[in-house]
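Worked example

This section walks through a single chain of length 163. The input is the sequence exactly as stored; nothing has been trimmed or padded.
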Amino acid sequence: MHQQLKLGIAVIAVGLALTVSALAAEKEHEDKPAPVTLADLPAPARAAVEKWLAGGTIQKIEKEDEDGKVVYDVEATVNGKHAEADIAADGTVLTTEEGVAYDSLPKAVRDAAEKYFGSAKDLNAAKELEKGKAQYEVEGKMGDKKVTLKFDDTGKILEEEKE
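Given that input, the structure is written out below as tokens.
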């Protein structure tokens, strides 16, 4: 009797472990962006991408799930510069980002970036628009790590990413 109880518990434990493992694998698969082509996009999203591109060249498109909604992350070359956009399936342009000259950043952003990095040497900049509000990214090196900072227009650091 005692041996059967141990066996039953072992069977249940193995079953639970397999179920948890399968659910984790499924969740990981859902979170991974899936590469797609322009032709794969629904018509409203495709029209929004084509309008945003304005003759540019698509580098890649990934289909993502953000808060239960389908979003297409588009990377392209537009007007000779790297640009990115997040576009909803209904064609709504959620965010855009494009490389800009470092000198074109607001003075408060340049001052904050130079204070953080120690100088303006070898810094790359981008301007992001989300819901009509501008944010600025500055990328540089700290030692052997690549650092990307996101600023508001007052020079306040909103995000810091180190690779």
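What to look for: The first strand starts at residue 34 and ends at 36.
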